[in-house]
Amino acid sequence: MPTTTPQSSLESFIAHARSKGMDHQTIRMLLLSAGWKEHDVAMAIGAEGLDVAVPTPPDAGGARDAFFHLLAFAGLYTSVVSFILLAFAYINRWFPDAALERYATDESFRDSIRWPLAALIVAFPIFLWMTRLLVKEMRSHSEKQSSGVRRWLTYLTLFVAASVLMGDLITLVFSLLSGDITVRFLLKVVVVFLVAGGVFTYYFYALRKPVSEHGSLHRNYAFGSIAVVALTIVYGLFMAGSPGTERDRKIDAQRLAEIRVIADATLSIVYGNDRWSKPMPSPLSSLQPLPESLEAIASETVSQRVPTTDPEGIPYEYRIDDRTHFSVCSTFHFDDQEQYAPFWNHPAGEHCYEFDTGEMNVP
User: Fold this and answer.
1) For residue 25, how many other CB atoms are within 10 A of its CB?
2) CA nearest to 138, candidates 249, 242, 191, 214
3) Strand 325-332 vs strand 317-322: parallel, antiparallel, or unpaired?
4) Average pLDDT along the chain
5) Is 89:113 a contact under the CB 8 Å cutoff?
6) Cα–Cα distance, 243 to 285 (Å, whole number)
7) Which end of the chain has less neighbouring CB within 10 Å, N or C?
8) How far apart are CA 81 and CA 116, in angstroms?
9) Sheet holding 349-356, edge to edge
10) What global pTM score does this model have?
């Protein structure tokens, strides 16, 4: 037995009513008074009287349209912020200010660019892809240009860009009046002005004219932004180093930390319970003798784990230089002359740190 759907029963009723001479207006009033929805009634009347079904409109302003626009603008904002952060980091690198970055190191620079670099690598292609897809759809369905989501997000972006431009110019004028103008400050002002100005110009013209009249607007902006972002990413990857290089740097840092542990444990054994007493135990002859080996240090230390091999499994070299001096040696991947305490600087290759038991604390 065939199943009767609500829509088919509605169409059957309309056909029956028409056969009895009722007009569409009367049929519509009857169905609405019975609780049928306006949309269902209209579609059923159209299906009964037309040979071609009523076409389904495109999803202009619908959930799909909103998703694409939100994703595109999220990619835009993420890309812009990441690009500006990277540009500022590069400018700080090229034009260092000793007063502001007295203790800046290569490692701190690499740390400062990793997050914005990763964000730019991910967000910018998403922005390009979504924008291309939206432009293509607007060319096929011109009514999508009037999407409320598109217009709201575009005007919001124009407002943000205009506000940034205004703030950028205010900052520039204030600095000029104060006489606090430096090369790197001017470069940062220029970067912000160009980025915000580019965003404002693109969306301003994109909103004013139909997509069919944009000509090469999208292509020119796409190629220009791709070139600039590509250079920014390539330079960032070069400065940040490859994953293998960064892994070796982290291993070197771990070696330093473990050598500190070895030295600290050795001094604790030598001084015993008197290590933290004040004044320092005197004479030094009252101190315990230096342990004979790393294994002895590890076995006598209960408060912490004392490593005997580095993160790559290579044994640390521990040696007694004389009665009050000992050394711990390891092999490093990279030269590092930027440690906060110069004592811990080291060249690439094998290096030994010499410790004096006359000093209770590790440098």
Assistant:
1) 9
2) 214
3) antiparallel
4) 83
5) yes
6) 50
7) N
8) 8
9) 317-322, 325-332, 349-356
10) 0.68
